[in-house]
Design goal:
The protein has 192 residues and is mainly α. The chain contains seven helices and two strands; from the N terminus they run ααααααββα. This is CYHR1 protein.
Length: 192
């Protein structure tokens, strides 16, 4: 009984951490970057729908996570590229996310999983590249944490560090979101 109770608390805490960090990041970046704020807000809303019982069916919650991944994360990368003058990469990432969001119904469960993991890794790598070239330490940490979340989700194991794999991935995503929030702030200060 105790391991199941711990697993439920772990899941709740990881959703809460991701939701609170994402909501804080959305509110604090809303004035400077509406795109990144929207990406953070999508993550917070997806986390909230999974936390609150009765907000929707399991299928609705999974659709929210899908949208938060394929649109929300590219919105974060969009802002990093846009501020640094790489408008074509910014538009390509966001456009690709939009196409995947629309095509999601035509992909099977395995196809959506692979597409979501590809989005996570592409966003992590592109932000990491921008962060390295602009010497943005928070961006580097954010890219590393998001990349770790993407790679952890591919593991066959059900538990990582004695916690359910999904909870560890959400915690890594929350840490990455916090770092991205700080990186956006540092990047805006650098260009002002």
């Amino acid at each position: 009984m105790a391991p199941k109770l711990w697993s439920e608390w772990s899941t709740t805490l990881s959703h809460l951490a991701l939701g609170v960090v994402s909501l804080h990041a959305a509110v604090s970046t809303a004035q400077a970057s509406r795109g990144a704020a929207a990406g953070f807000l999508l993550q917070a809303l997806a986390s909230a729908t999974l936390l609150a019982p009765g907000l929707g069916t399991d299928e609705d919650c999974l659709a929210g996570v899908w949208v938060a991944t394929v649109i929300g994360l590219p919105l974060l990368a969009f802002d990093f590229h846009w501020v640094n003058g790489d408008r074509s990469s910014a538009n390509l990432l966001l456009g690709g996310g939009m196409v995947l969001a629309v095509a999601g119904d035509h992909l099977g469960a395995e196809g959506r999983s692979v597409a979501a993991q590809a989005v996570v890794l592409v966003v992590a790598v592109t932000i990491l590249i921008v962060a390295v070239f602009t010497t943005n330490t928070y961006g580097m940490w954010g890219g590393a944490m998001l990349g770790a979340a993407g790679l952890l989700s591919r593991l066959e194991e059900d538990k990582v560090l004695l916690l359910p794999k999904e909870d560890v991935c959400r915690c890594a995503l929350a840490a990455g979101s916090w770092a991205y929030h700080r990186a956006l702030h540092a990047q805006r200060l650098q260009w002002e």
